[in-house]
Amino acid sequence: MKTLQFSTEALCKAKRTAQFRRYAFFMNKTELCSLLKKLYIPTLLFVIFSTSMPVTAQEQMASISGIVIDNSGEDPLIGATIYIEELKTGTITERNGEFLISGLKPGNYTLSVSYIGYQKHIENIKLEAGETLKRVFRLITETQSLSEVVISVKSEARMLREQAMPVSVISIKQLQGTVSNVQDVLAK
């Protein structure tokens, strides 16, 4: 393998030649300062606009946060569903019963909170721009009784006895000359 050594001067001259099969960028201090001056104002404008837009858009949005708890024991209900019907979106409560729905447009919404074994809570809410609405939902337990349940079980032996067995009738004329013992008769 051949080792090549190039001086800095040789590399600067070679930047415009096709000797390297790919274009190499080498700049001196003057070229670098010139490039930075050309890019300074557009870069500055880009940074200002890209950081300020989400803040103004975020100020116009609203959010809903809160906690869902049991009415009798004040225990948090983990996995309760909070749903905004008009937006067809929602969330579930976390480990401590808390929830957050953010990025909502201001307006009037119907919020429903539900959990298995509890009565569904429906509430109309109004969100203002930049507002974080905080609510505590206390769900009431719901007692539901089921109708009678009948369980019937059959043992394996009983199931075998109840299964139908195929029976075929063979006349003596059909067996004459084809079988020589009882096993041959049963095989037919």
Would you write up a description of this structure?
By secondary structure, the protein is α+β, with helices and mostly antiparallel strands. It is built from five helices and seven strands. The strands form two sheets. A four-stranded antiparallel beta sheet has the order 3-2-5-6, with no helix packed on it. A hairpin with a 6-residue loop joins strand 5 (107-114) and strand 6.
Oligomeric state as shown: single chain
Indicate the radius of gyration in whole angstroms.
41 Å
Helix/strand structural class: alpha+beta
**Sequence stretches where pLDDT stays below 50 over 5 or more residues:** 1-7, 16-21
Summarize the amount of helix as a percent range.
25-40%
Report the β-strand fraction as a percent range. Answer: 25-35%
Following the backbone from N to C, one meets helices and strands in this order, namely HHEEEEEEEHHH
Q: Tell me, rounded to a whole number, the average pLDDT.
A: 77
- Tell me the major beta sheet: 4 strands, antiparallel
- Helix count, per DSSP? 5
What's the quick description here?
The chain has helices at 8-14, 29-59, 156-162, 172-175, 182-187; strands at 62-70, 81-84, 89-92, 98-104, 107-114, 121-127, 132-139.
Note the topology.
Elements (H helix, E strand, L loop, with lengths): L7 H7 L14 H31 L2 E9 L10 E4 L4 E4 L5 E7 L2 E8 L6 E7 L4 E8 L16 H7 L9 H4 L6 H6 L1
Parallel strand pairs: 1-7
Antiparallel strand pairs: 1-4, 2-3, 2-5, 5-6
